[in-house]
Design goal:
Largest sheet of chain A: 7 strands, mixed
Distance between the termini of chain A: 50 Å
Helix content of chain A: 25-40%
Oligomer: homodimer
Protein name (chains A, B): N-carbamoyl-D-amino-acid hydrolase
Low-confidence stretches of chain A: none
Structural class of chain A: alpha/beta
Number of helices of chain A: 9
Keywords (chains A, B): Hydrolase
Pfam families (chains A, B): CN_hydrolase
InterPro entries (chains A, B): Aliph_Amidase/BUP, C-N_Hydrolase, C-N_Hydrolase_sf
Order of helices and strands of chain A: EHEHEHEEEHEEHEHEEEEEEHHH
Number of domains of chain A: 1
Strand content of chain A: 25-35%
GO molecular function, one term (chains A, B): hydrolase activity, acting on carbon-nitrogen (but not peptide) bonds, in linear amides
Largest interface: A-B, 83 and 83 residues
Chain lengths: 308, 308
C-alpha cells in the first residue's frame, strides 16, 4: 500500500481557507502521482493553530470552526480525491449543529466518502488565560473531550485507526486500536517547539515525539503515518518531523524541510502480521486481569498490596 | 539517588552459583563505592538462561531453581548489602513449597530485607519442543504466569516498581505501575540476539529494546534501570545494552562492553514529577472510559462501531 504523509509549513492568521486548500490539493496531487492510496494531512489543517490565542469561544467558532464537512471551502479536496482515487485524513475544528466543539479528524476513502470520524480525547493545555505566557495552549477551553472513542475503519481491506496530536503520547490510544485489529494508525499534529508550562529542554520536544511513535508502532504491530505542521506560524515555531514508522519501530520516511512536503513509503501490512503472530500475539501473551488499574484509576494513587 | 545497573557477561552451563555470586558481589561493591543506593542485577542472574535448553521440568528445577530466598548460595549478597547499606534487585527461578514455578525478581532494601517480590507475567516463547530451532525459548514450559500483579514498593522514600524482560515490551506493564505512583522501574532481562521464530532483523532486537524503554520511561514519567546479560552463553549470544533511562526518554547511561559492567547515574526524582505535573498529569488528562477494551479483550477482535 502506498502511504503519503503531507507535512504543512505554517498557516498564518492572515491566510484564508481557500489558500490552504490550494496547498493541500497540490500535495494530494503529488501524493497520488507518487503512488499513494492514502494521504495524511495535519491536525487543524485548514487554519493556523488558533488555540495559542486568547479569545472568546464565539470568536474562535466564527473564525476557525467548520459547521459542516465537506463544506464549500474543502469541497475541492473531496472532488480531487474522487478524481485521483486517493483517500485522505484531515484534521479540523468541528462545531456540531448543537453547538458542541471538537478537535476532529475524518477518514475519507478514494470515492470521497467520509468513512470515519474521530474526536480528540487527550486534550492538552489549559482553559484559563495565562497572560504571562508567551502564548496560550487553550485546547481545554475551545474543545470538549471526544465522545466517539478510538475507532478503526476498514478502508480498501486495510484496518485504519485515527488519533490526533497529544493522543500519540498515550499508550492507551494505540492499544485500544490494535485490540480492534488496526494495521495502520494515522494522525495529525501541531506541536509547539516551546513548552510554556515548564522549562522543558527544546530538543526533548522532538525526541519524545519520535520515541512514542516508534515504540507505539512496535508495541502495537502497526504502521504509523504522522503529519505535522512546521515552521513558524506568525512567530510560533512548531517541531515538524513528520514521519512514517514501521511495525519494527523504525522510521522509514521523515520530512526534511520546514515547509509543505510530501513523504512516502510503500508499506507492507504483512510485516505487522509477523509481529502480531509472534512477540505480540495478544491472545497468547496478554493478561488483562493484571491490567485492571488502567481503567479503574484515572490519576495515580497509592501502591496496591501484592499477594506475597 | 544513586542508581547502578550491573550488566552481566555470560554465565555458562558449567559455572556454579558460587562463582556467579562472587561476580555479583564484586559489582555490588563497585556500585556502592560509586555512590549507588540500589543496584539492579539481570533476570535469572544466578544461572545460565536455561529456558533455551529442552529438558524435563524436574531436571530444570533440580539444576536451576531456588527453593528459598535467601539461601546459602546467595546469602553473601544479602550480607554484603547490609554491610554496605545498598539495596538490590535480583532475578531468579523460584519454586514454591507447593511446587509452583515462577520467573521471579525480588527487591531488597539496604538492611537486606526483601521488601518486594514480582513474578513475571508476560512469558515469551513456547512450551513445546522445537527440534529444528537452533535453540529453544521454553519460558511457557518452565514457568507459570505470575500471580502477584505489578507491584510498587516504597524504598527509602522512593516508589520502586519491578518487571522482568519481555514485560518491558508491553505498555500495560508500566502503566499499572505508574498508576501506583511508581517513580523508578527496575528490570532484568536475557534477550537472545537471534529470534528463532521468524526472520527478524538482528539489529531490531536492540532497536526495539531501546525504544520501548525510552518511550515507557517518558510516557509514565519514571526512571528505568534495565540490566541484561550479554555476550555468548555457551555460544548463545545476547543483546546486552543495559541502560538507565530518564523520564525525558533519554538514555543517560549505557553499557559499553560484553562483560560484567556497572553503569551509574544520579537520578533526580523531581524530573519525573515535572512530567507528572504537566503533560502526564493523569488525573487531568486520562479518559479511562475510552480505554475499556484494554481489559475487556485479550486478543484483537473486530473494530467496534463508533458513535458517529
Amino acid at each position: 500500500m502506498g502511504l503519503a504523509v503531507a507535512q504543512m509549513g505554517p498557516v498564518h492568521l492572515a491566510e484564508d481557507r481557500a489558500a490552504v486548500v490550494k496547498r493541500l490539493l497540490a500535495m494530494m496531487r503529488e501524493a497520488a502521482s507518487r503512488g499513494a492510496e492514502l494521504v495524511v494531512f495535519p491536525e487543524l489543517a485548514l487554519t493556523t493553530f488558533f488555540p495559542r490565542y486568547w479569545m472568546t469561544e464565539a470568536e474562535a467558532v466564527d473564525r476557525f470552526f467548520e459547521r459542516s464537512m465537506p463544506n464549500a471551502d474543502v469541497q475541492p479536496l473531496f472532488d480531487t480525491a474522487r478524481e485521483l482515487g486517493i483517500g485522505f485524513y484531515l484534521g479540523y475544528a468541528e462545531i456540531t449543529p448543537e453547538g458542541r466543539r471538537f478537535n476532529t479528524s475524518i477518514l475519507v476513502d478514494k470515492t470521497a466518502k467520509i468513512i470515519g470520524k474521530y474526536r480528540k480525547i487527550h486534550l492538552p493545555g489549559h482553559s484559563d488565560h495565562k497572560p504571562d505566557a508567551p502564548f496560550q495552549h487553550l485546547e481545554k477551553k475551545f474543545f470538549e473531550v471526544g465522545d466517539l472513542g478510538f475507532g478503526v475503519w476498514n478502508m480498501d481491506d486495510t484496518n485504519v485507526g485515527m488519533c490526533i496530536c497529544n493522543d500519540r503520547r498515550w499508550p492507551e490510544t494505540y492499544r485500544v486500536m490494535s485490540l480492534q485489529s488496526a494495521e495502520l494508525i494515522v494522525l495529525g499534529y501541531n506541536t509547539p517547539s516551546w513548552n510554556i508550562h515548564w522549562n522543558e529542554l527544546i530538543h526533548w520536544r522532538t525526541t519524545t515525539h519520535e520515541i512514542v511513535l516508534q515504540a507505539s508502532a512496535y508495541q502495537n504491530a502497526v504502521w504509523i503515518g504522522a503529519a505535522g505542521k512546521c515552521g513558524s506560524e506568525d512567530g510560533h515555531h512548531m517541531i515538524g518531523s513528520s514521519m512514517i514508522v514501521a511495525p519494527s519501530g523504525e522510521i522509514v520516511a521523515r520530512s526534511s524541510y520546514e515547509e509543505d512536503e510530501v513523504i512516502m513509503a510503500r508499506i507492507d501490512l504483512g510485516l505487522g502480521q509477523m509481529f502480531r503472530d509472534h512477540v505480540f500475539n495478544f491472545a497468547k501473551h496478554r493478561s488483562p486481569h493484571h491490567y485492571k488499574l488502567i481503567v479503574e484509576r484515572t490519576g495515580a494513587g497509592d501502591p496496591l498490596p501484592t499477594g506475597d
